[in-house]
Amino acid sequence: MPTVTIPPPPPLPGQPRTIPAPPKAPSLWRELSEGTTGWGVRLGVNFALAAAMAGLVPILAYVLAALNSSWDRSSGYGPYPDDELIGFLAAMASGGFLAATAWLWSRSHHRRPVFTPVALTIAIAAVTIGLGIWVDEQLTGERELVIGGLVCLAGAGAVLVWVQSFRRRGPRWRALHNREDGMPDVRCPACDYRMVGLTESRCPECGAAYTLDELIAKQGFGPGATPAPNPREAGHPALRSA
Are residues 183 and 230 in the same domain? Predict the structure, then answer.
């Protein structure tokens, strides 16, 4: 049931009128964890994560090579990190980036299965690293050409894995009525709060506001399926307008 807020009493004559402070906007972290941010914000955070990972790898490799001489391939002119150390840190950073991306894009009620593409991408990266090490040790000549080709093939495979995971496989309609009470299953598109029975089209859970047409259009019901008014809820405009 929505919380009923009692308005404050009017000020007495001669008493200064107090203006309530505007509600504080939620932090970016809260919106990301609750899944209320749009795809543009999530994409921007994704790019920021990628840039942060790309910057941390060389810095950490330099520091580790300076602290441990076994990871330093220089001859006394400053730390030069080994290629194996850089590759290991890059693989770890890639795994962390994939895990953060999976968490970021699964914070919504419209969740897609992301465990399988993440696991397949990690497997592709591991196989590519193993093949690259084998090529570097066993082949002669321009081994870099073969290693570069393996990296390109791995990138193509990872892209196809994610395209397969996120592509639409035909219409995915949602049931019109709730199985428990048989009433229209109208929910907030932002947080999945059930909005049947409210007297306004503003979600009391996350505060998102919609027009009635927007609210019904974002439900994902099948073609021609619109919630019919229930006689028991005749006083609620959300159901009556639907």
Answer: yes
